[in-house]
Design a protein that fits this description.
The structure is a homodimer.
Chain A lengths: L7 E7 L1 H4 L7 H11 L3 E8 L3 H14 L2 E5 L10 H9 L3 E3 L1 H10 L7 H4 L3 E3 L3 E5 L3 E7 L2 E4 L3 H7 L14 E8 L2 H14 L4 E9 L2 E10 L2 H17 L3 E4 L1
Parallel strand pairs in A: 1-2, 1-3, 3-8
Antiparallel strand pairs in A: 4-5, 6-7, 7-8, 9-11, 9-12, 10-11
Chain lengths: 249, 249
């Protein structure tokens, strides 16, 4: 099967705790790294509050504009967990007990422990597909191209394995980084020339300051290794001419 | 002057490096924490790529829906820094050399060092207001309700001081956290009752796993301390009844 060359996804982070600054989101980085590794380009991330209408509106835009949407957060047992009912409304589906999920959690908990609060976690859009959770039992779910994952980073990470066969990426995006001991303005013009001659390679320039070192990382991204290699040669050429020290390549 | 009770803001993170997973964004957390402390509610965060049309479209939506928009990234000297020209287009303004910014950077650099690359950093929408940069010279800028900041976290942080007098918040949102040694499903029903009786307090429930401890943090947020206090009493009542250990309050 020939893969589409461009497959894109949006990430929808649902959670007041990120918007208040209380919690540092790390799920974006986890999901984006994983998606890029399987050839899915992340086109947009949105962080929105636990408000039903906001979730529905964002979902309905993002699921039309992207091959995949991944949501994080809001699938636990408490009153502020409203992702499953919001997804149901976005798709016009019933919000009901999912029989397979019910069986999983009934077996997961000790007799008598699968209480009302926990039973909320098996209410999902009708006919949702489950995303198994090897860490804490309660599964995520998907409807069409929307995949709903939990907000707790360690649980989310543990669930990516069971998504592997469901997400079909395009050509993986290859990447090469050259780190230089310089400042951006020293190389800006030369780098613009390289970009102009290589419009099919995404060239990023990122200043860094760490371990007492100040420098610039040039990141070259493309599905095509030979085009990246071509850019590397051109970058190394101006680096040599300008007598810039290479920190890492 | 009576403050508006609700002042909101959106954060627009401009940068391919976040979408590729290469860089972990921390500016959202920095800005959100600061904005909340001055009474500005963050209603939405978007992370978008370095694509002019995408930046313009997002800006034009967010600046209408919010009292303030803060952008991060894309104001450096390289070809992938296109925030200033995109903001100019979004507002239909000329993109030109800002005289005051030019003077600042001319004085900042040694004679002969204020080269073409660096001069790009003083091109801005006409009549933009500067946001001074005590770390690395090159200022940010604002146009109407849109404030453009750099992507490098340490530089962004150092510029918030000069924004203090420009951003007028509403009533600060007060917050109180009670951390319990329990799991969410044990308290879900009780917490729903508290939320139902206190619709003007935002009650969040967040599982945590750290330092070998597993528990739930209940976060109570409101502009009104007495309403928070009322919720605290109600939470502590069910905590006592259920004999749940309090980790922190």
């Amino acid at each position: 099967m020939k893969k589409n060359t461009k497959v894109n996804a949006a990430i929808l982070i649902i959670g007041n705790e990120i918007l208040s600054g209380r919690t540092q989101d790390t799920n974006t980085s986890t999901l984006a790294t994983w998606l890029n590794s399987i050839g899915v380009i992340v086109s947009e991330v949105r962080v929105i509050p636990d408000i039903e209408k906001t979730i529905i509106d964002a979902l309905n835009i993002l699921r039309k504009d992207n091959n995949y949407v991944f949501t994080t957060g809001g699938i636990g047992p408490t009153h502020d967990d409203i992702t499953a009912q919001s997804v149901s409304k976005a798709f016009g589906l019933k919000y009901e007990i999912h029989k397979e999920a019910f069986k999983i959690l009934e077996a997961y908990y000790k007799p008598g422990e699968f209480n009302d609060g926990r039973q909320k976690m098996v209410k999902m859009p009708e006919n949702a597909e489950l995303i198994l959770n090897p860490t804490s039992g309660a599964p995520g779910f998907s409807v069409e191209n929307v995949y709903c994952l939990p907000g707790v980073p360690s649980i989310l990470k543990s669930m990516l394995g069971s998504l592997k066969n469901k997400i079909v990426g395009g050509e993986p995006v290859l990447s090469h980084t050259i780190s230089l001991k310089t400042v951006e303005s020293e190389i800006a013009n030369s780098l613009t020339k390289v970009q102009d001659q290589n419009s099919d390679v995404e060239i990023g320039s990122y200043p860094f300051f760490h371990a007492g070192k100040l420098g610039v990382s040039i990141v070259l991204r493309s599905e095509n290794q030979s085009r990246i290699d071509n850019c590397i040669s051109q970058v190394l050429e101006f680096v040599r001419e300008k007598n810039i020290e290479i920190v890492d390549r």
